[in-house]
Amino acid sequence: MRRPIALTIAGSDSSGGAGIQADLKTFTVLGAYGASVITALTAQNTLGVQGVYGVPPEFITQQFDSVLSDLQVDAAKTGMLADRATVEAVAAALGRAKLPALVVDPVMVATSGDVLLAPDAIDAVRRRLIPLADLLTPNLPEAARLLDEPQAQTESAMEEQGRRLLALGARAVLIKGGHGQTAEAVDILVMPDGVERLAKPRIDTKNTHGTGCTLSAAIAAFLAGGAPLQDAVRRGKTFVWEAIAAGRDLEIGQGSGPVDHLHGLVRK
Asked: 46 catalytic, yes or no?
């Protein structure tokens, strides 16, 4: 039996709510076999990031080559890449691999506010990684940083920033509106041939740790299973919204807790 295979290229979250751990949980729940390339180790919990230990670029490449020499990866996603050398190594490996689908989540800042991408790496993301992306998934602050512009305050501004990011080489851009203040959490999907507005009621909860990782992982899992891009994005947003709703009252940690990645499973 052939099972879809999804690859996450990201940092490890020792508290389990974001990064590699969130991605693998999401892949599993959505029926994809998950493989990983770990780019950094973090000492992290729901209160913040206490430390980051970078994986040497040559070992990142070795992990990537090991996975790709054996597994037929159907879709991949990137997450925390930490610094310029890591971005360059990952971009070079992805450029050689030419995978069927790639979701680039330009992780720059954790939910806690801790910086996860060095300033000098942003240009490498623009030049090397974005042109490889089938889908780029920045939140409002990340889109602004990538473009050196103020953060978008309206849906029309989100669309305009999406178009400018599209011009950097991505084949589609999903601007995530989770950082907004409106009653609806609105994402704008910008494609060369059109724009789609995706909205869900905003959920009042502090448990939002790992939402961006979970969304990009869900989209990658659906792409690995053969879903068209727009369908994968719609289903991914629904999955994350349901995970936030199910986990709104979870008591895990003392700070910004995780979403409930396992909400779709039957518990006994």
From this structure: no
For residue 268, the model assigns a pLDDT of: 38
Question: What phi and psi values does residue 96 have, to the nearest 5 degrees?
Answer: -70, -35
Q: Give the separation between CA 183 and CA 90, rounded to whole angstroms.
A: 38
Residue-range domain boundaries for the chain: 5-246
Q: What is the mean pLDDT of the chain?
A: 93
Q: Which residue has the tokens 């940690």?
A: 253
Active site residue 48: no
Residue of 25, 77, 176, 237 marked active site: 176
Residue of 17, 212, 247, 257 marked active site: 212
Q: Quick: pLDDT tens for 25-56.
A: 999 999 999 999 999 999 999 998 899 999 99
For residue 138, give the nearest of 181, 106, 165, 102 by alpha carbon.
Answer: 106
pLDDT tens-digit profile of 194-207?
Answer: 999 999 999 999 99
Distance CA 17, CA 211 (A): 9
Homologous superfamily in CATH for domain 5-246: Ribokinase (3.40.1190.20)
User: Which amino acid, residue 146?
Assistant: L
Query: Is position 98 annotated as part of the catalytic site?
Result: no
Give the HSE-up count for residue 113: Cα atoms under 13 Å, Cβ half-sphere. Answer: 2
Q: How is 124-141 classified by DSSP, letter by letter?
A: HIIIIIGGG-SEE--BHH
Q: Could you tell me the pLDDT band of residue 119, with boundaries at 50, 70 and 90?
A: confident
pTM score of the predicted model: 0.96
